[in-house]
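Hello again, I could really use a second opinion on something today. Take your time with it, there's no hurry, and the full record follows here:

___
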Amino acid sequence: MAKLKNYNGRYCESEYESAFIAFLQSVGWTYLPGNKIKRCYRDVLIADDFRAFITKANTDLLEEEIEQIYDTVRLVGAESDFATLHKVYKWMVDGIQFTPQSGLPIQVTLIDFETPENNIFHVVNQLTVDYINNGQRENRRPDVLLYVNGMPLCIIELKNPADSHSTIYDAWEQITIRYWRDIPHLLHYCPLACISDGVKTRLGTVRTPYEHFYAWRRVNDADKISTMPFAETETMIKGVYAPERFLEIFRDYIYFQDEIFDCDEREIVCRYPQFFAVRLLKQSIIKSVMEQTGKGGTYFGATGCGKTYTMAFLARQLALRCSDIPEIGSPTIVMIVDRDELQEQGIKLFAKSKEFLNLGEVSIVKSRNNLRQELGSRESGGFYICTIQKFCDRKEDKIGLINDRHNIICFSDEAHRTQLEHSRKIQFSKDADENMKAMVSKPYAKVLKEAFPHATFVGFTGTPIAETYQTFGDEIDRYTMDQAVADGLTVSIKYHPRIAKVLLDTKKVKEIEAYYKTCADDGATEEDIEASKKAMSSMEIILGEPSRLERLAVDIHDHYVSACDKEPDRIQKAMIVCSNRKIAYELLRKFRDKYPEWFEEKKIPDGIEATKEELDELKPMPFMAMVASVGSNDEKEMYNYLGGVKNDRRSKELDAAFKQEKSNFRIVIVVDMWITGFDVPSLTYLYNDSGRYHSIWK
């Protein structure tokens, strides 16, 4: 164990530790050396602080009752370490139920979030914590702990900037491996963790994987984002650890799934883009509701911003922190997406978040009538997810008014695509059998506002356009791709255009002209057709030319194999995007004819090692597969390949396998499914063949 030195009255392992503590003191924490705390070395609470706060906040409690509450918190336990962490966190945020001798149960507050100055904030360093290993007494000594009312809420592990062999990864290992192994009873009280070496300072939780620890790059809403490495420590301390800000983040921006899902061990703390976006959107929504503009604002969030969690944090704010605004109260939130896949992805998160959202019912809307009944039966609360297509206004099925309450908030996901006020009235679409047709419809946004005339609409998009702002209001906050790359939330994308030559015969040219004639017969104007010709210069007829598909298969195969050979220790999955299902299937057949070994089902590829436990979780899969919906008029071979009536089940199995790094399933061919909101860290290449040239995105 390192010998402590006296730096400016602080006993620390290094000058950096002393400087870090000084930073914390400057924003409002009081320094308390670990060796000055009266306790036995196994105890991790500061008993005097705990008792002092409870006594001051609950003047009616007897001394022995305060001792009972202290013992309850000190001796807390549950079925697992994670369940204990979750249990304690809920006590810290919501209070602990206690029945005093008077006989009436009360909720005892452990932290005063409303009046931060009523709390006791201590920064403690070098706290020796005892544990027993194989019958022998040992101890650990975390660098810095942040205590609020005698409870350690955040653990901070520091590495000496002067030691080139010591990194923040070592700090992460100390917390997530050694401390969980040896002193879990300390971490039961520490939802938050910070690792720093002076250059890099990163925030996470005590369960966060290393790659998900992130810098905090803004202190206040209007600040410019700082990307200077040496500024990370100061920005983190001012932006996260100033006591009032710390309590704000601690109460509402740490996410646990519902208690029944504790076995998943998922705990997440917000990133700075989510925190500031939620704060600003909340204020914009309040303003919109009060002024009845219906426009809650637009959030421009690039890939990697964590848009779905931003919605979850925002929903919690609206549910719990607007009680003083009668017009909002506990709102009803309707999340509107434009794809079934996004609906399914949304429900996977929100259905497990009822405790966090505090809105009661969370469900997918099965039909308009279902939504009308649900909203009609409640005056507040509820979180509903539905596709925008349920608001398509047809002559034979008018929507009309669904609900006219003022406290309905609509979250519109991918707001740039379909949910616009001034969308073209003649739109090209495809029916279930992939036949192109033109349809005349009211813009979805207009129908939505007829359905919810007094609702407030909020747009979330990674690609805002002018119409987005016209529909949802001004841009409230933004997080660009450049910022996401700088933060390490996503990798930079490299684009490689590759030409695939096509020779067309007279017959195919006539087919193209016939296609446009059909569009005209269905009601498209000359302007629509010309615009479509310009935008769709690579028609399906061109892209489906057999010899081109064969050359495409060879090119993709050779590129992918070469890329994997250059980095044999790295798992690199790939996605091929085609313009329609028929072309995608024809391309799949080209691959199958030329590379049959890619279609042999295995659990893992040759040359990959896996443990028995990993193999038990894997299913035999082909190296390449196609994922798409089925059409009623699909040819038999394609229909059966896609699973027929079991298409949904097949797609979910392939979804799970593709997200398993060691699965043999490495290359997927898609048309529209899996393109949006599909998170696979090992997905390295996107082969885009939906235009004149196919290209590779890395």
